[in-house]
Recover the amino acids of this structure.
C-alpha cells in the first residue's frame, strides 16, 4: 500500500510539476540566453512574421498598443507573441537547460564581478537589439531605466529610512538643470549660452562629470532640507520637502538664464542607451551595497526605533542626513540623464504630478527592497506606456491598481527583501557528480 | 496706505479659501493622525457639485417661473453642495482610510493621493476638457470706503467663511459629537473603550471637512468663475502647508494659518514681482517652521511612523 502510493506519487508528473521544474531548474543565464535568442528572432524575422499574421508592423510594446487600438488584431498579436517570444524561449530553455546550468556553475566559481559582467552583457545585448527595432522602444526603455533610478533613490529615504520625502522632483530638477547647464555651456553651440567653451568632441567624456555635478547639486539641496528637518521626527520632513519642491520649481521659473518657464532645449545627445544602462547598473549596485552596509542597518534601526538606535551608538542625525543626501544625489543623476534623454527640460515637468508618479512607483513595488523598486518602476512605467491608447482612462486604472495593492499589501508588492545578485546567478540544479 | 488696506481685503478673501480647506486637513489629522491627501480634489469636486446644483436651481427657476432671488439660490447651492460633498468625504474614508487604519501611515497617504488622481481624471473623463464657468448668482456691486474698493462678493466670501468657522467652533465645543471628536483626538485608543466608535467619528470628520471644502469651492467659483479639474491640486497642497503651519490637528491654528498664508501670498505679490510669490512665501513658511517646528498651536508630540 505504502510503496504503491510512493511510486504513484513519484510517477505523477502533471503539467504543473513539469512547469515548476522547467522554471525552477533554469538559472538566470539560461533565461537571459533564451530572451536574447527571442530578440534575435524578432530582429531578423519580426517583419516577416508580422506580415504573415496580418499585422501592420511589429507590435512595439508586446502588442498592448496594437490590441487596444484595434481589437480585431488580437489573434494576430497573440500569435506573434507566441511565435516570437514564447516559442523560442521555450525551445532554447528546453534545449539548453543543462548547459546553462553548467555555465552558471562555471561562473559561480569565478569572482562575482566577472559573473555579473557576463550576465549584464548578455542582458544589455538583448535590450540593445530589442530597442534597436523602434525609436519608441528606445525612449520607453531609457525612461524606464531612469525611473528605476528614481524609485531606488526615493526608496532609500521613504523605505529604508522611513521618512516621507516629497522633494524628489525638486532634486531631479536640480540635477537636470545643473547637468544641462554644464553640457550646454561647455560642449554645445546653442542660443542659450552661445558657442561651446571647450571642443565639442570632448563632451561625451565629460558627461559623467556633468551628471555627478547634477547629483552634487541635488545633494546640497538635500542638505538644506536636512539640517532643519531632522531636529524633530514625524511628518516634519514631508512638509519641508514639499515647500522645498515648490521653492525649487519657482526659483527655476524665475531664473532667466536657464530659460525661465520656457525651459532649456537642444541638450547634446549624450544619454544613449549604453550610458543610461551603465549609470543605472552603477546606481543599483551602489545603492544595494549602501543599504546592506552597516550604514544601511543603522538606517533600519533608526527607522524602527530612533531612541534604541541612539542607545546602540548609532549617530542618528548623521545617518539620516547622509542618507538623505545620498538619495538626493541619485535623484539628481537621474534628473541629468532625464534632461539629456528628452533633450528638453522645463520647470513644469518637475511638479506635483511627477511626485505622485514617483511615489506610486515606490509604493507599488515595495518599501525597503531593491527588487521591489525595480519591479515597481518597470511595471508602472511599462503599464502606463502600454495603456496609452486608453488616453485619460489610464489615469483611472493605474491609481485603482495602486489602491488595491495598498489595501491588500500595505507595504507594496515585494517589500522588505534583500537583493542578492550572487544568489540570483547561482546554478539551479545540483550537477551530477558533485 | 489705501493700497495696503486694499491688499488686506484681498488677502482676507484669498486666505479664506486656504483656511476653509486647511480646516479639513487639520480635523482629519487630529482624529486619525493621517492627512487626507485627496482633500484638494474634494475641494474641486465640491466646486463642480456646486456648479451642478446652481445650474439645476437656475433651470428650476426658469422652468417653473418661481422668482427665487439670487441670494436664496446661492444659500441653497452652498447647503446642498455641502450635503452632497460630505458623502464624497465619507466615501474616501470608507475606501481609502478605514481599511488602512493599522497599516503604515504612508500607505494611507498613497491611497489618498491616488483617490485624488481618480477624482481629477474621472471628472475629466465625464465632463471633458472644456472649462466650465460658474454661474454668477448675485449681481456684482462695488463699494468704496475711502480709497479701498470692496465688492459685495468679497464681503460675502469672507463673511460666509467666518460664519462657517464659527459654526464649526460651536459644533466642536458644544455638541456631543464635537465632544466625542475632541476626546478622540486626545486619545484615539482609550476613547473607543468608552463607547465612542471611531467608525462613526472618522466619517463624520471627513464629512465635515469635505463640506467645508465644498463651501470653499463654491466661494472660489464666485470669485474666479472658471472651473477646471486640476484646480484643486495647487490650492489643496498650499492649504496643506497652511494646516501644518497652524499646528497639526489644531482647528484654530489651521484657520489662522490659512489667512496668514493668504496675506503672505498677496503681500509678496504686491511688493515683489508676482513670479517670485512662491519662492518668498515658502521661504517665509520654512523660516517660521524652523523656529516653531510644530506650527503655531501644535503640541510637541513625536509621531513615530508606524512602518
Amino acid at each position: 500500500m505504502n510503496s504503491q502510493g510512493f511510486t504513484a506519487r513519484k510517477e505523477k508528473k502533471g503539467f504543473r510539476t513539469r512547469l515548476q521544474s522547467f522554471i525552477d531548474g533554469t538559472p538566470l543565464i539560461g533565461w537571459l540566453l533564451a530572451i536574447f535568442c527571442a530578440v534575435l528572432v524578432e530582429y531578423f524575422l519580426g517583419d516577416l512574421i508580422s506580415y504573415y499574421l496580418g499585422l501592420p508592423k511589429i507590435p512595439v510594446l508586446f502588442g498592448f498598443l496594437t490590441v487596444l487600438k484595434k481589437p480585431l488584431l488580437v489573434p494576430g498579436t497573440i500569435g506573434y507573441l507566441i511565435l516570437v517570444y514564447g516559442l523560442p524561449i521555450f525551445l532554447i530553455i528546453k534545449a539548453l537547460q543543462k548547459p546553462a546550468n553548467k555555465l552558471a556553475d562555471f561562473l559561480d566559481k569565478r569572482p562575482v564581478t566577472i559573473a555579473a559582467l557576463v550576465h549584464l552583457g548578455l542582458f544589455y545585448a538583448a535590450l540593445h537589439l530589442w530597442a534597436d527595432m523602434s525609436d519608441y522602444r528606445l525612449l520607453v526603455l531609457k525612461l524606464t531605466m531612469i525611473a528605476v533610478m528614481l524609485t531606488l533613490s526615493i526608496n532609500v529615504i521613504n523605505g529604508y529610512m522611513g521618512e516621507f520625502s516629497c522633494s524628489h522632483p525638486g532634486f531631479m530638477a536640480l540635477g537636470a538643470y545643473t547637468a544641462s547647464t554644464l553640457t550646454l555651456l561647455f560642449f554645445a553651440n546653442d542660443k542659450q549660452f552661445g558657442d561651446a567653451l571647450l571642443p565639442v568632441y570632448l563632451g561625451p567624456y565629460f558627461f559623467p562629470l556633468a551628471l555627478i555635478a547634477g547629483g552634487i547639486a541635488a545633494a546640497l539641496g538635500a542638505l538644506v532640507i536636512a539640517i532643519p528637518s531632522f531636529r524633530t521626527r514625524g511628518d516634519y520632513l514631508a512638509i519641508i520637502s514639499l515647500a522645498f519642491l515648490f521653492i525649487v520649481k519657482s526659483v527655476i521659473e524665475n531664473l532667466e538664464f536657464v530659460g525661465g518657464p520656457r525651459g532649456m532645449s537642444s541638450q547634446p545627445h549624450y544619454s544613449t542607451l549604453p550610458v543610461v544602462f551603465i549609470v543605472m547598473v552603477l546606481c543599483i549596485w551602489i545603492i544595494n551595497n549602501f543599504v546592506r552596509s552597516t550604514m544601511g542597518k543603522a538606517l533600519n534601526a533608526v527607522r524602527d526605533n530612533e531612541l534604541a538606535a541612539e542607545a546602540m551608538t548609532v549617530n542618528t542625525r548623521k545617518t539620516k542626513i547622509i542618507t538623505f543626501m545620498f538619495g538626493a544625489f541619485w535623484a539628481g543623476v537621474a534628473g541629468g540623464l532625464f534632461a539629456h534623454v528628452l533633450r528638453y527640460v522645463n520647470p513644469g515637468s518637475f511638479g506635483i504630478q511627477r511626485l505622485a508618479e514617483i511615489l506610486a512607483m515606490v509604493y507599488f513595488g515595495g518599501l525597503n527592497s531593491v527588487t521591489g523598486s525595480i519591479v515597481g518602476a518597470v511595471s508602472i512605467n511599462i503599464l502606463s506606456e502600454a495603456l496609452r491608447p486608453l488616453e485619460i482612462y489610464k489615469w483611472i486604472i493605474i491609481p485603482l491598481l495602486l489602491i488595491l495593492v495598498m489595501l491588500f499589501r500595505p507595504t507594496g508588492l515585494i517589500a522588505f527583501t534583500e537583493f542578492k545578485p550572487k544568489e540570483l546567478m547561482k546554478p539551479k540544479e545540483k550537477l551530477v557528480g558533485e | 496706505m489705501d493700497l495696503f488696506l486694499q491688499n488686506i481685503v484681498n488677502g482676507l478673501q484669498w486666505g479664506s479659501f486656504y483656511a476653509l480647506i486647511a480646516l479639513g486637513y487639520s480635523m482629519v489629522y487630529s482624529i486619525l493622525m493621517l492627512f487626507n491627501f485627496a482633500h484638494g480634489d474634494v475641494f474641486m469636486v465640491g466646486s463642480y457639485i456646486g456648479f451642478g446644483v446652481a445650474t439645476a436651481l437656475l433651470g428650476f427657476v426658469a422652468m417653473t417661473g418661481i422668482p427665487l432671488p439670487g441670494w436664496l439660490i446661492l444659500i441653497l447651492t452652498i447647503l446642498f453642495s455641502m450635503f452632497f460633498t460630505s458623502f464624497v468625504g465619507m466615501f474616501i474614508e470608507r475606501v481609502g482610510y478605514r481599511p488602512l487604519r493599522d497599516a503604515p501611515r504612508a500607505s494611507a497617504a498613497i491611497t489618498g493621493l491616488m483617490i485624488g488622481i481618480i477624482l481629477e481624471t474621472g471628472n475629466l473623463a465625464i465632463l471633458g476638457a472644456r472649462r466650465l464657468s460658474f454661474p454668477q448668482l448675485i449681481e456684482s456691486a462695488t463699494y468704496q470706503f475711502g480709497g479701498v474698493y470692496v465688492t459685495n462678493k468679497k464681503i460675502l466670501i469672507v463673511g460666509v467663511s467666518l460664519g462657517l468657522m464659527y459654526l464649526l467652533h460651536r459644533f466642536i465645543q458644544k455638541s456631543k459629537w464635537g465632544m466625542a471628536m475632541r476626546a478622540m483626538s486626545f486619545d484615539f485608543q482609550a476613547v473607543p473603550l468608552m463607547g465612542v466608535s471611531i467608525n462613526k467619528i472618522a466619517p463624520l470628520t471627513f464629512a465635515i471637512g469635505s463640506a467645508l471644502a465644498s463651501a470653499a469651492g463654491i466661494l472660489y467659483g464666485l470669485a474666479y468663475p472658471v472651473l477646471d479639474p486640476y484646480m484643486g491640486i495647487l490650492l489643496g497642497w498650499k492649504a496643506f502647508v497652511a494646516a501644518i503651519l497652524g499646528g497639526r490637528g489644531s482647528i484654530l491654528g489651521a484657520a489662522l494659518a490659512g489667512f496668514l498664508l493668504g496675506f503672505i501670498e498677496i503681500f509678496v505679490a504686491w511688493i515683489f514681482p508676482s513670479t517670485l510669490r512662491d519662492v518668498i512665501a515658502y521661504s517665509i513658511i520654512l523660516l517660521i517652521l524652523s523656529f516653531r517646528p510644530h506650527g503655531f498651536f501644535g503640541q510637541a508630540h513625536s509621531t513615530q511612523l508606524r512602518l
